[in-house]
Amino acid sequence: MRKICIVGNSVAASRTPAESPLAGWGQYLAEFFTDQWEVKNYARDAMTARDYYPGRFVALLNMLKPGDVVAIDFGGVEQRINMVIRYHSRREFKEYLRLYVEGIRTQNAVPVLVTPAARCTFDIDGNVLDTRDGYPDVVRQVAAETESPLIDLNALTTDFLRGLGPTRAKQFFRWVDAGEHPNHPEGIIDASHFNEAGAREVAKMFASALHELPGLPEDVVRPETLVPAVYPPVLPEFTVENPDYALYATERTGTAPAIAKPDRAALVGASLKFSGTVHPGTDYVLFFANGVYAGGTGVGPDGTWKWRRAVQWPEGDHLLQAVGLTEHGVTPAAELPFTVLDRIAPPRVNGPAEGAWSGPRPRFSGTAPKGVRKVMVLEGERMIAEAPVRDDGTWNVTHPHDWRPGLHTVEFVSVFSAIHSEPARRTFRVLGIPDGNWLRESAGSRLACGGGACEHHPFVGP
Fold first, then answer.
1. Which family does it belong to (predicted)?
2. How many domains does the chain have?
3. Is 278 in the same domain as 307?
4. What's the pLDDT band for 154 if we cut at 50, 70, 90?
C-alpha cells in the first residue's frame, strides 16, 4: 500500500476528542482517499521547517518508498518574528523547503508543496486579510523553481472564507463563546486553527486539489466524496433584534460588565481580544464600537466572557461599550477607550555608531517607538538576538559570541503585537586578528583549548 505523508505544524496535526473542538485537516484526509492509499500524519504543534528537518525528517526519509507522496505544509509559524526559536526569514524558509524537496526525491517519492491556510481575519469591508506576511508566495516560488506539485491551500481557504463572510466564518474555527463547549467553559478565540467542521472542509479542499494535480496517480481520491460545502447559518450575535436598544435604553438594571483586558487607554493591535466578567444573572454581553453594534458573546458559568470580532479594527482611537442582558433588562454600559496601531516605526539604533569600530562582542543599543516591547536583531536575514524594551523605551543587547574581524551589517526590527516594522540597518567594524594572519597561523599546530580563556603559551588572543 502506498502512503501519503503530511509534514507540518498544528493546523494539519491530528487531534483527540479531549482536544475538541480543535481539529487538524490531516486527520480527515483518509475519508476522501481510496483504500489503495494510507495516510500518515506527521504534522506536530509549533513545528517549523528548521525544527522538523534534523530529526523527524530523517525518520520520514527512512520509511519512504518509491511512489509515496509527501505533503509539505510549513509557513504557518515561521513568520513569527517576535519569537526567536520559530522565526525563519523568507530566505531561510525557502532554503529549507528546497532541502525537503531534494530529500524526498532521493527516495523516489513525490513532494507536494502546500501553502499555509488563511486565518479567520477580515478587514472592515469584509475582505479576507492576508496575515501570512508573504510566506505563501515563498512556497509558490519554490514549487515553480523545483517544478514540484503545488496545492495552494492559502488561496483555497481564502476563497472559502470570502464566501462565508465574517458573520459565518468563525463557525469553522476553534472559536467558541464562554459556556458554549464543555472543553472550554471560559471560551476560546482562535483564528488560526480549525474545528471539526472546518478541518474536514479543508481536508476536502486538499483532496480535491490533489485529485486535479497532473502527473499523480488517478487512484488516490474518491471523486464522489468531494461534495460542495454546506454553509452554516449566520451567527446568533449578528441576528440580535434591535441591539441599539441596549445602548440607548433609559431604564437599567444590575451592574455594568467589567472589562479586564485590554487595559484602559491601551495601545493595541488590530486583532485584539477583550475579556472580563459580569454580575451573576447576566446571560449575554453586547458590544458597540464607537456607538455602532459590533457583536456579542455568551457568558460562562462563572460569569466570565471573551470576545473578539472577526473584522480587524482600523488604526486610530476607538471606544468600546459593553452592555449585559439579563432577564430583568439591560445593564449600564461599560466603556473602554483604546488606540489601535497597524504600523510601527523601526527602532532607533544608538550604538555602535555607523561605521564605528567594535570589540569582538558588539553591544547594540537604542530606543524603540511607544508600545514596542521587543527589538529583534538580524544578520544576513537570520535572527541572532532579541532585546527587551524597558518602560522608558530604551533597549540593549550584547551578542554572546565573538564576532569575526571585519565589516558587518545588522538589522533591527520593532515588534508590536502581531506587526513589525521595516528594519533599521547599522554597519560597523569588528577589531581583531583576522584569519590567515601570522599571529594565528604561527600557533596553528595545536588545537584550541576548550571552555574559558586560554593563558597557555604561545598566546593567540581574540
1. Belongs to the 'GDSL' lipolytic enzyme family.
2. 3
3. yes
4. very high
